[in-house]
Amino acid sequence: MTIALTFLTVALYFVATMLLLRRLALGAAASEHSRMPALLLGLAGVALHGFLVYRVIFLPQGLDLEFFHVVSLIAWLVALLLLLAALNQPVENLGCVVLPLSALALVLQTIGPAAPNLLSRLSAEMQAHILLSILAYSLLALAAVQAMLLAIQDRHLRNRHPGGFIRALPPLETMERMLFHMIGLGFVLLSLSLLSGFLYLEDMFAQHLVHKTVLSVIAWGVFAILLWGRWRSGWRGRKAIFWTLAGFVLLMTAYLGSKLVLELILHR
User: Fold this and answer.
1) pLDDT at residue 165, as a whole number
2) Are 253 and 260 in contact (CB under 8 A)?
3) Cβ contact 189:216 at 8 Å
4) 23, 163 in Cβ contact below 8 A?
């Protein structure tokens, strides 16, 4: 059943991506009504993806936060946040990147090498810390995708090649405004995650968390500088894109990079 549901979910993500790519290719000629089938298919895929993630992470013995399970969980949450936001905001074109990556993450969850990382008897505070961390990473990952799309849009406009792809996107100012909304909310969640970690983690050294904490704090500082620059000096364009992607790379290295090394290479 797992293989069958995985195949169905990947198929739904694929068809939704194809519909979104078709809208991009049509540009200004794309019908507004053509976006809803893509969103509904994407949401159906997200529903099945969520069910499959729940089955492998939430076990009777506790939470299994194995590397590929966490990657799939973050990908699922990014796709969910995107599709829910797309119901009211013109951000559905991010799905051209997010949905295929979510499909890949689900495939890796199903066939990837297993290195169980079972956490049992977690306190409510630690569960809240883990939830805040994953929410922050997911929202800032979505902001990074938005920044990459914004970089492509900015480059096309600077080169005066506003083709169908660019015409299908919202205006540059709208894209930047949505980017900073994502970063602002992600920054708040990241701040709460770091605060809860400092309060409730008993021994950072014994839990191999020093490198993760240091990189996360640096990433927090990068996003803080970016938001301050936006508020104080109106940072936008390439500067905003650079700082967003720099913070995201640090954050992903802190969490997924450290999990990859510890679990799949060092087997800790």
Assistant:
1) 57
2) no
3) no
4) no
Tell me the CA end-to-end span of the chain in Å, nearest whole number.
Answer: 31
237 Cβ contact list (under 8 Å, min separation 6): 154, 176
pLDDT in the model for residue 182: 87
Q: Measured between alpha carbons, how far is 228 from 120 in angstroms, rounded to an integer?
A: 40
pLDDT value at residue 206: 47
Number of helices (H) and strands (E) in the chain: give both, helices first.
10, 3
**3-state DSSP helix/strand/coil % of the chain, to nearest 5:** 80, 5, 15
Identity of residue 109: Q
> Which whole-number Å values give the CA distances from 75 to 121, 134, 172, 255, in the listed order?
26, 10, 26, 14
Chain center to CA of 120: 26
- What Å distances lie between residue 246 and 142, 147, 218, 252, CA to CA? 14, 11, 10, 10
Q: What is the pLDDT of residue 243?
A: 93
pLDDT given for residue 155 in this prediction:
80
Of 47, 46, 42, 48, nearest to 5 by C-alpha is: 48
Could you give the CA distance from residue 174 to residue 27 in angstroms, rounded to a whole number? 17
Contact 81, 139 (CB under 8 A): yes
Q: What is the pLDDT of residues 196-252, one digit of tens each?
A: 887 776 655 445 567 778 888 899 999 999 999 998 888 888 889 999 999 999 988
How far is Cα 260 from Cα 115, in angstroms, rounded to an integer? 10
Low-confidence stretches of the chain (pLDDT < 50) are: 205-206, 265-267
Beta bridge mates, 62: 59
Burial 98-124, CB ≥16 within 10 A → b, else e: bbebbbebbbbbbebeebebeeeeeee
